[in-house]
């Protein structure tokens, strides 16, 4: 499943993340932990920002200048309604050149939609966009090796893939980042989040 198809699927279900059924605290405790490693509240980027704006709101509250990107046009439209003063980009992270430097980058429940063959290049690009001591928080499938699957989500097919934790950690290291925290935060589900910091 290519990013364009993922974006089209999310266009149809984008309202779920702004509805009453979605837990708006999802991922926030993990981001509070990641922010403890941040040395400056400078520029931040939310990759796969979605429509809820909860992570962007947190980053703005603690002083970051935030940008959001998403492959879904409807996600971006809803996000702009909630945060009209934030800069949003309707782009595919696989194709978008990260030419700026960021002190904090989040990719919460987003990079696992990137085709597995493209994930190493995307992670390299994200690590390269971190300022010195910059922090990167991301989620991944907590498997020992690579895997990919397409499952329904609110009636729409969504692709998920993982490189496997050993390869992910090697990639972070090879691109100048050290893993500060790794946790199976929804155990026994294989949902993992990692906090990395640029050396």
TrEMBL record:
It comes from the Bacteria. InterPro entries: Methyltransf_25, SAM-dependent_MTases_sf. GO terms for biological process: methylation. The keyword Methyltransferase applies. It holds the Pfam family Methyltransf_25. It is an enzyme of class 2 (transferase). SUPFAM superfamilies: S-adenosyl-L-methionine-dependent methyltransferases. Its EC number is 2.1.1.235. GO terms for molecular function: methyltransferase activity. Residues 45-134 form the Methyltransferase domain. Keywords: Methyltransferase, S-adenosyl-L-methionine, Transferase. PANTHER family: METHYLTRANSFERASE (PTHR43464), UBIQUINONE BIOSYNTHESIS O-METHYLTRANSFERASE, MITOCHONDRIAL (PTHR43464:SF19). This is dTDP-3-amino-3,6-dideoxy-alpha-D-glucopyranose N,N-dimethyltransferase. It comes from Kolteria novifilia.
């Amino acid at each position: 499943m290519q990013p364009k198809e993922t974006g089209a699927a999310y266009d149809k279900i984008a309202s779920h993340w702004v509805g009453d059924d979605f837990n708006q605290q999802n991922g926030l405790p993990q981001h509070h932990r990641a922010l403890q490693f941040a040395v400056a509240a400078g520029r931040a980027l939310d990759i796969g920002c979605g429509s809820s704006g909860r992570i962007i709101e947190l980053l703005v509250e603690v002083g970051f200048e935030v940008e959001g990107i998403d492959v879904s046009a409807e996600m971006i439209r809803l996000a702009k309604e909630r945060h009209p003063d934030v800069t949003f980009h309707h782009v595919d992270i696989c194709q978008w050149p990260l030419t700026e430097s960021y002190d904090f980058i989040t990719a919460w429940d987003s990079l696992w939609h990137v085709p597995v063959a493209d994930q190493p290049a995307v992670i390299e690009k994200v690590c390269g966009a971190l300022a010195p001591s910059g922090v990167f928080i991301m989620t991944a499938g907590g498997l020992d090796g690579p895997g990919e699957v397409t499952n329904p989500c609110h009636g729409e097919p969504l692709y998920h893939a993982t490189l496997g934790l050993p390869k992910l950690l090697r990639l972070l290291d090879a691109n100048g980042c050290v893993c500060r925290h790794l946790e199976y935060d929804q155990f026994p589900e294989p949902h993992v989040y990692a906090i990395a910091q640029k050396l």
